[in-house]
Design a protein that fits this description.
Elements (H helix, E strand, L loop, with lengths): L2 H25 L5 H23 L11 H28 L1 H10 L1 H21 L2 E3 L2 E3 L4 H16 L27 H11 L4 H28 L2 H12 L5 H8 L6 H4 L2 H5 L18 H6 L3 H68 L1
Antiparallel strand pairs: 1-2
Helix pairs in contact: 1-2, 1-3, 1-7, 2-3, 2-7, 2-8, 2-14, 5-8, 6-7, 7-8, 8-9, 8-14
Amino acid sequence: MTTTSLVSSLILFTAFLGTFSVLITKYFPRITFLECIFMSPCIGFSVSPWIVLFLKSFPFADSGISIGVVLTTLLIQSIFVYLFTQNAFNIIKSSKKLILQELNFHLTGVIILGLMNFWWYYMCDLHYLKKEGSSHIVSGSVYGDLPFHLNLVSSFNYGCNNNATIFSQLLSPFYAGKPLAYPFMPDFYISVLVAGGSTLRESLVLTGWILLSSMFFLLYLLNYRVTKSTRAAILSIFITLFAGGIGGFYFILKNPNWYSWSYLTGNEFARGPDYVLYWQDKDTAFWFSLPAHILFAQRTVQHAYPLAISVLLIVWNGVIGNENKNKQKNEDEQEEENKTELLEKNVLNENDKLSPKIEENKNNVNN
């Protein structure tokens, strides 16, 4: 790793750690420890490019994305880390028992999703500009989408949007002179990492791997919140992963290579064909695969999906969490009332027992 690519890695790391520390400090334990971990990449990687765009809006900023702007962004993110991390670690230390209980409770899901992380990295590595000989190879539907994204990325570093600010109208790199109508921030963040010294391939693989991994962890945690069942939450991962049609079943039934480990782990299977319009009835059978055609190809959804799930978790927490809090408050108040009533009854019973004795003593004194 070169010194310049180290800067890009620190940009990613401080974006994650700063967001994680803020979430732990402000919202833990209402947002659980695991939720804080896996919300942090998508939130941090979404806020970080806005800091860069804001800094580019000052008159002293150079055209393109200068290393000075990148280093200033790193400094700002490091300040957030400094301000919140110590408190976050103290909270984690004091809540160690609660966190260990959570990790133990979700152990099966964490193991399955942890193993899946290796697959996400392997697939991102294959899909984004892998060097083979003198060529850079892409896979599947990424072949059609990646040029679009690379064009947009390069426009911020060297092209028509190199003077972009938070106030300016972005220009389309595809239609000369026309305004850009596209959610550009994911591609802008890649251009920031490239300005920090990473290659396009390193930036695409690393952000893709982290965001896709966090997406499926968050999906598991959201479905656990909804169903209160870890089994249902685990099942939801695979239902989502294999959604899109019958292509997977057709492959298992018709392709004799599916039981070959060397084939399944080789580049031929990982890179395609996509099994879209490939099979029977004169190429009329469809399979639209979520990973192959959406998650790897559509760069924006790698940010959007985990962000959307994070918002749902926060809303769920706000609504259901407040209901549970009010319910618990009512239960505590009712329990306090019951204790008070019981205490009053005991006092009255004791008074009833003492009354005859008091009368008897009075009579004895009078006699």
